[in-house]
Every structure is written in structure tokens, then in C-alpha cells.
Design brief:
Distance between the termini: 31 Å
CATH architecture: 3-Layer(aba) Sandwich
Strand order of the largest sheet: 1-2-3-4-6-5
CATH class: Alpha Beta
Shape: globular
Radius of gyration: 14 Å
Bound molecules: coenzyme A
CATH superfamily: Gcn5-related N-acetyltransferase (GNAT)
Strand content: 25-35%
Number of helices: 4
Helix content: 25-40%
Structural class: alpha+beta
Amino acid sequence: MVALEERVFDSDLVSRAQYRRHLDSSSAVVLVATATGHLFGSALLFFRSNARVARLYSLATAPEARGRGVGAALLGAAERIARGRRCHALRLEVRAANAAAQRLYERHGYRRHGHRQGFYEDGADALLYAKSLR
Ligand SMILES: CC(C)(COP(=O)(O)OP(=O)(O)OC[C@H]1O[C@@H](n2cnc3c(N)ncnc32)[C@H](O)[C@@H]1OP(=O)(O)O)[C@@H](O)C(=O)NCCC(=O)NCCS
């Protein structure tokens, strides 16, 4: 997962220590897409006690596996898990310049509801998206 993060993201990477903590935590779910022993994608989902809105913190598909539905499958799995935890919405942030990911989210019913300046470690802006799971 750390190797995939390093291939896919230039900033705001989830470290090995953070992954270890998330794997042990009841407030995080780590999703992976694997085939033939290879990791092709991952997603990280956060929950807060007493909050009915889950947060999709990260979604990544290995470059060689893109365009084959891995991202859509991880997104669908994240929504099912959030519903299973009685969440009524899933929210996420995406880089303002990341048109491919914005398209994926919009096609799957996410609506843009805000903009956060300088949200990322490298100073890039984020667009805020959410989807009702009801
Ligand atoms: C955004 C991302 C997760 C999408 O993953 P994916 O596995 O390619 O997603 P899907 O295959 O489900 O959907 C990609 C769409 O692009 C199209 N596509 C076709 N060829 C493609 C290619 N070579 N690369 C990317 N997308 C392609 C797909 O057909 C699909 O469109 P459709 O649903 O209209 O058919 C992936 O591009 C990625 O990891 N990007 C870098 C990290 C990132 O931006 N993460 C999200 C922000 S946190």
C-alpha cells in the first residue's frame, strides 16, 4: 500500500506508520483491490464516532490498471461499508486540478459543495464533494 501511494501521489502520502494505525483502528477501513497476488488499488475510509458522515480520505489505482473499473469498484465498496455503518453520506476532497477523479466522482453521484484554499500540503486547493447514501 505504501509502494502504491508513492507511485500515485506526489503529496499528502499516507505513511507506513499511519497505515499500521489505520489497520488497527475501528475508525478506519482500508480497502484493497487485488488480483493474482498483485495490489491494483486501495482506498482509505474514515469514520468518527457519533458522526453519520464517512470520509473517503484516499483512492488510488495503479497506473497500469486504470480505466478498468478498479476505482469505481473501490468507490462502490466504500459506499457499501459506510451504509453498513449506518452513515447517511460519504464526503471527500479532491484536488482542484484533478479532473479525472472529479469526473469519476460526479459520474457516481457525488455533488460538489465547496472549495478549500490551500488544503493540501503543497498548497493546492481542494474541491469538496459529498454523496447521500440514503
Ligand atoms: C482517479 C482514479 C482512482 C480512477 O481509477 P480507475 O481505476 O482508473 O477508475 P475507473 O476505471 O473506475 O474509471 C476511470 C474512467 O476513465 C476511463 N479511462 C479509460 N482509460 C483510462 C486510462 N488509461 N486511465 C484512466 N482512466 C481511463 C474509464 O473508462 C472510466 O470512465 P467510465 O466510467 O466512463 O468508463 C485513478 O485515476 C487514480 O488513482 N488517479 C491518481 C490518484 C487520484 O487522483 N486519486 C483520487 C483523488 S484522492
